[in-house]
Amino acid sequence: MTAATLSATPPLAPTSARRGGASRVLPGFGLTLGYTLFYLSIIVLIPLSALLFKTFTLTWDQFWAAISSPRTLASYRLTFGASLIAALVNAVFGLLLAWVLVRYRFPGKKIIDALVDLPFALPTAVAGISLTALLAGNGWVGQYLEPLGIKLAFTPAGVVIALIFIGLPLVVRTVQPVLEDAERELEEAATSLGATRLQIFVKVILPHIAPALLTGFAMAFARAVGEYGSVIFIAGNMPMISEITPLIIIGKLEQYDYAGATAVAVVMLTISFALLLLINALQAWQARRSGAAA
What we know:
With 294 residues, the protein is an all-alpha fold. It has helices at residues 3-8, 15-18, 29-55, 60-67, 70-103, 109-115, 118-121, 124-135, 142-145, 156-181, 184-192, 197-225, 229-235, 245-254, 258-293.
């Protein structure tokens, strides 16, 4: 065999490729898949199944009475309404904060970047007490606002503020890495072609960060819906006014009404799952749209 023939002969494929399988860094797909399904079942599926089975012990009339009382309906409106408002606010200001941390250099930047994670480090009860001490009528901020007719503590507005506080880091930490990886050459090219700043943001930057922004919004919303510790201190827990749904569930548990508590929990789970499914559908649509545009 000549040297020319040897050079023209393609190299042999790896053994795994010749057998029709892709090479993997970590072997044992069957074992890892089994562990994944087992872990998912233990942590997620079995607890949710127990929740549903406990609810099935109620008749339809009992279930409807548990989830549709005026006090419970008022808590739904407050919990989901405040969570939605807080998530929208966090989506806007979380994006702005992530933008500042990525695109600008200024003294104290690392300190601010570290402070973003403070709501993660604080116990929720500490966060609630701190906000109450700040916004109450005799607090540092509340003592100046209440004479003006602005009352934040022990009102639905206080609930929104608490949910904004605990949800902001989720948006910032989701959007920040995407902004860091964004190709600024595209922005420079758009600028050289005469695009305005608004056009660059809408046409170039926003489509790139939209999936991450939607993810941060969904995470902030999900965290807000289930938040308890930081809210009960600043909410005042007044029935029909500032009482959140998790507190309704705790109250039913304290009254040994376990089936009623699980019924309300199932409603929260269903609404949250539907909203998260909608957000995931929007993410998939945005990804397909970006792929088609590319």
